[in-house]
Amino acid sequence: MLNRLKKLHWLDWLVLAVVLSFFGYIWWKIEGTLNYNWRWHLIPNYILRFHTEREEWFANVLLQGLIATIRISIYASILAVILGTILGIARCAKNLTIRMLARTYLEFLRNIPPVVVIFIFFFFLSQQLITALNIESWAREIARSENRAVWEFFFGDMRRFPSLISGVIVLALFESAFVGEIVRAGIQSIPKGQREAARSIGMSRFQEMRYIVLPQAMHKVMPPMANQFITLIKDSAIISLISVQELTFKTVELVASTRLIFEAWITTAAFYFVICFGLSMLFRRLENRKS
Q: Would you say residue 35 lies in a domain?
């Protein structure tokens, strides 16, 4: 880090000084115009709070939302990768009907605003699926059971499990379209000569895809897949519109009850930035090691 700072040219420092001065000026103007009473000292209590009776720390509103966002992002990513891989393979299938169905799904999702897609999936698929599988009753039974601690470790409050599942399904279905295109591009990047060689030694279409194409394709698509995972974390804020209690939803509740408008939203933005930027640095380092 110090070596990089030493390599900076004086023009770099000048640009940095100008940028900082600009933001300082904007901050000064906002302070003078808004006449806002900053209450940053209250924010830590909404992240972690000490329970005086139990004498222990517990996650408060913002941290609860952050944990929910991480859970939803992980589960939605796994489901999106599975669905996206299937869609990507279907886009490269020999059967015209399969190709057209996969392309219709992908083009439909990629050319409609995310908010509209979220509502369509929520009302017409996710809610119906939860009702059909009777997930709400099952979740309530788990919430009353003795081994609920294990379930709550992975899924949080089981009383809100249907909401979590709705968010995961909706987000995964939306993101799977983009994952599918990434997988398709990876499959089509494999030279045709390798496929022909696989067929020449008697491999079936499935074996060719399983042993030759997919391993190489997945290796090639890891960087864009990592970027898509980061995008999914940011897109998870959209599902607050369907009352999934993730970070953005919790922030809206906090602002409504405390009027900590700037403090709450700046803290939430910082949470998203730390997660996404940290993952970006991690994926970049892993990519550099592989190369």
A: no
CA distance 88 to 217: 11
Average pLDDT over residues 19-32: 81
> How many domains does the chain divide into?
1
In a domain, 44, yes or no: no
Q: Looking at the domain assignment, is residue 86 inside a domain?
A: yes
User: What is the tally of helices (H) and strands (E) in the chain?
Assistant: 16, 2
Identify the DSSP state of 38: -
Question: What per-residue confidence (pLDDT) applies to 198?
Answer: 82
- Using 50, 70 and 90 to split pLDDT, how confident is the model at 290? low
Q: Which domain holds residue 90?
A: 61-290
104 located within any domain: yes
Per-residue pLDDT reduced to its tens digit, 117-166 = 888 888 877 777 777 777 778 777 877 777 777 777 777 777 778 888 88
Q: Which residue has the tokens 């409504």?
A: 256
pTM of the full structure: 0.83
Helix (H) or strand (E) holding 214: helix 214-220
- CATH at 235: 1.10.3720.10
Residue type, 235: D
Which residues lie closer than 8 Å to 119 by C-beta, 6 or more apart?
A: 241, 242
